[in-house]
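Any chance you could type out some protein's one-letter sequence along with its backbone structure tokens so I can compare the two?
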Amino acid sequence: MLYRFRDLIDQHLDELTLSVRTGNGKVWDEAQGDVPKAREAVEPACGIPSLMMGESLMDSSSGFDAVLYREPLGVSVGIAPFDFPAMIPMGWMMSLCIATGNTLVLKAASMTPMTSIRMLELLYEAGLPKGVVNLVTCGRRETELLLTHPDVRGITFVGSTAIGLHVYSTAAAHGKRVQALREAKNHALVLQDAPLELTAAWPASTWASRCRSACFHSQVTSARSSAIFTHWARTASASSPSRSASPQPGSTKRS
């Protein structure tokens, strides 16, 4: 079934890319990067039998054999962010969850649910039994029920730090196994011998791409030389559109 789902993603690549662009507001090239990343996450799920094999050891102690079994956890909940509506919910969360024998209640991002809904339709078209994956679009009050429901055994979350802390503390207090991936603040260290042009282009592109919503962007840069910051300022000034504005304190307006 997952092999068929992978093939359906390929067949509907442009349709799904358009859905990401329309719902998320990304330009076409950036939206086109989201859907293949969902496909990449489905690939290891297709090969899950080899990853799920148990272990055994005869005579681990006198008269005892040791056997390890891997068993499904049960009902799981995935709480997805808005910025990658294909890769995170339908790649990271869904594929490995159901491949390991669990069921999933997917809480799609309320602002960008359409791509996940369409991919779920393709998943059922590929042959997924009814009820294995269910998708909801709800607010915080309803999501709270998922964190505390006695039938839910595991929670996976991707999103902001504040909400992630709440998800982790609430679900853990109710005995759930929780994975909370919160917003990243990546730091870049620029050494003194770094090539100026190449180094200057990389962080600037991360700040301006993917609506600044990707967690692998470098929000903080520390440099051993001030030349990199001077170069950024000069580049930004040259690329900014000219516009008339009221003079700022300390400035002089000339005709």
User: Anything to note?
Assistant: The beta strands are 55-61, 64-68, 75-79, 103-107, 133-136, 152-159, 177-182, 186-190, 218-223.
